[in-house]
Amino acid sequence: MNLLFYNGNQERYELEIQKTNIRPTHPLSRKSRILVLTSFKHTRKELLIMKTIGIVKENLLFILGLGALALVRPIMKMTGIMDLIGQQFGSMLMTILISLAWLVIVLIKKPAFPMVILIFAGMSYALYAVILSGLVSPLLDGKLQGPLTNPFALVSVFAINAIWGFIVGFIAKTLRR
Question: Comparing C-alpha atoms, which of 94, 95, 117 is closest to residue 106?
C-alpha cells in the first residue's frame, strides 16, 4: 500500500507499506525518516480508511460517471418508459443491464480496486437518486416524496446501493483473476 507523506518543507514523498515494514520509494533524510516512523502509529482500520479515501480520490470521476449511468432507471420510471415494459420486470431488467454495463466498463478499464470503485459507484448513484427524487417529486406530485421524507429510507437507499456495487465489484474482481 502506498501513502503520501509531506515533510516539514512540504516536500511530497510516497511511502510503500508492506506488512510491518515501511520503505520509502524516494530517499528521505534521516530526520524525515525518524518523523515518519515515530508518527506512524495508525491502526489497520485507519490504514484501510486512508487507502480507501485515496482510491476514491484517484477514481472520483470514474465513480461519479458509473453512478450517473445508473440514473437511466429512475429517468425511465419518471418518463413512463418503465410502464411500457412493465414496472417490476423493467426495474429488474434495468438493474441487470446497468450491472452488466458497470461490469464491462470496469473489466475494460482494469482499475486496481474494482470492488471499492463499484461500492462507491453504487453510493454515488444513491446520492444522485435522492437528489433527483427531492427535485422532481415536488414538481410531479406537488409534494416532497421519496427517501428525503424518511431517514430510515435514506439510509437503506445508500446501504442497498453499496451492496449492489459490492456484488458487481466482487464479480469483477473474480473475473479479473
Answer: 117
